[in-house]
Write a structure and sequence with these properties.
- The protein has 295 residues and is an alpha/beta fold.
- The chain has a single domain, classed as 4-Layer Sandwich (Nitrilase/N-carbamoyl-D-aminoacid amidohydrolase).
- 24% of the residues lie in helices and 28% in strands.
- It has 5 helices and 15 strands.
- Strands 1, 2, 3, 4, 5, 9, 11, 12 and 15 form a 9-stranded mixed sheet that branches. A 6-stranded mixed sheet has the order 6-7-8-10-13-14, covered by helices on one side.
- A hairpin with an 8-residue loop joins strand 11 and strand 12.
- It is globular and about 55 Å long.
Length: 295
Amino acid sequence: MSKKKYKIAVIQLNLNDVAENNLKKCLSWVRDAAGQGAEVISIPELYSSHYFCQSEDVANFEIAEPLYSTSFIAFSALAKELGVVIIVPFFEKRMAGIYHNSAYIIDTDGSEAGLYRKMHIPDDPHFYEKFYFTPGDLGFKTIPTKKGKIGTLICWDQWYPEAARLTALGGSEVLFYPTAIGWHPGEKEQFGENQYGAWMNVMKGHAVANGVYVAAANRIGLEKYLPDTDGIQFWGASFIAGPQGEILAQASHDKEEILIAEVDLDLQENVRQNWPFFRDRRIDAFGDITKRAID
């Protein structure tokens, strides 16, 4: 059963192409977050490498790992040692030819509380995820943990109100969004402010519409590892918002940071009592939402 209050954290990091170094770094930062009182902690999307989806290259499938191997073993041991919940996004090799962009939710005893597979897969310039990832088949899930009921969505899922709504309806108190999003350097001056603003606004809207806490964990740094490209400048700006969209913690665009905020379930209930959006939903009129278009 959830406590009335617990502390959550998102960790914003610069990551590189050496998996062992990224693992050591993330373990160390999770330990630091726990030392600051965090009880549920998320690291960024695809933590173990640079953002390899900037190109379509079959060699990158070598980065993937089977379930319950390197990442799970390491973070499971740490979660059990520290008594915290850890959200660990990783590149999953399910079988030959089937790969997912996934996240473990590891409970305080080191067991798997849940597994999420990214449902929405983008295909944009230098975000060629459809080449690598099979869409998730586990649905939108609320994961009960010994600290609280949490939902984990991943990056491109951020833009979909349906994903947030269904996860919240399952009882999630917090929606975590491990993320890898940034600017194309050549576009930043013209489009960057609006792109970043839209990213924050849509997730703050999910918090308001569902009366939930929202926590986004992004990476930072210019990842320019392909010849003859400008790379991607990951914009950081990780944040935690409360159930009225209020910003409880906000990171910079360019520094490695730990953000911590308190989840207050009494406050969440009070917000939902005064803004009863769930009560007033016209579920009898929503059937067309499952259509691709209404035409």
